[in-house]
Amino acid sequence: MDRIPILKLGSALLVTIQVDMHDRLAIALEEDLTAKIAATAAKGVLIDISALEIVDSFIGRMLDNIAAVSRVLDAETVVVGMRPAVAITLVELGLSLPGVKTALNVERGMALISRRIDADAVSRGELDDRYDE
Amino acid sequence: MDRIPILKLGSALLVTIQVDMHDRLAIALEEDLTAKIAATAAKGVLIDISALEIVDSFIGRMLDNIAAVSRVLDAETVVVGMRPAVAITLVELGLSLPGVKTALNVERGMALISRRIDADAVSRGELDDRYDE
């Protein structure tokens, strides 16, 4: 396995992490993601880590990196499906992932991204007529 | 890795196959999927195989099995993201997957499942008012 598939779902991209990440795979994922954000004008990136029983500092940094790069490309990163034990480990490692939003599952993550798209549209005045009545 | 994550997306379940399937993993996936279809009353199962460069008769049979079991539970199986080379290999193996629907990508697969849900609703008369005008 040399690539992690990136699935397009509406205005968001979905990545499911299932395999052990190593350097080359993490770099390939970051490259593929940035290319796909640019190509599809995606507004959000959902990273599902429900399959991961352990998140070490390497994966923590990778998530942080992806979130930082996505933000520069105007896409929001939402990590979904984190197990409670993983959350505890992350905080113990001193990795509270400040740049990364989290949601319980993919559906809530999608809802979060949809709300952000709506908010952006409102702030640009595109949805003004929605609130005219 | 002992389990492949199953993500709920609206009325459908999404599975991304990224790792080499072996007997135990395939059986676990079938069990998890049937349990989740029953628990969520899902109407469709999307199986993304865009990461697979090779689909052998074992995976072909697994897809066929999943489709058959899902059908009994009133959910439609759509295999998405199949590479052209994989399609050629499948036919050469004599596996044309008669019980499995296919779609180019996840979005089209979702659209296929949505259309089926609408068609079911119409045949039950629930959407009659849509067509009254």
Structural description of this entry:
2 copies of one chain form a homodimer. Helices cover 46% and strands 17% of the residues of chain A. Chain A is α/β, with parallel strands linked by helices and 133 residues long. Chain A has a single domain, classed as Transcription Regulator spoIIAA (2-Layer Sandwich). In chain A, strands 1-2-3-4-5 form a 5-stranded mixed sheet. In chain A, strand 3, helix 2 (57-72) and strand 4 (76-80) form a beta-alpha-beta unit. The longest helix of chain A is centred in the first third of the chain and has 18 residues, at 23-40. The model of chain A has no long low-confidence stretch (mean pLDDT 89).
Short description:
Chain A is of the alpha/beta class. Chain A has 4 helices and 5 strands; from the N terminus they run E-E-H-E-H-E-H-E-H.
The overall pLDDT average of chain A reads 89
- In spatial order, strands of the major sheet of chain A run 1-2-3-4-5
User: Main β-sheet of chain A: number of strands, strand sense, barrel status?
Assistant: 5 strands, mixed
Oligomeric state, counting identical vs distinct chains? homodimer
- CA-based gyration radius of chain A: 16 Å
How many strands in all of chain A? 5
Task: Identify the CATH class of chain A.
Answer: Alpha Beta
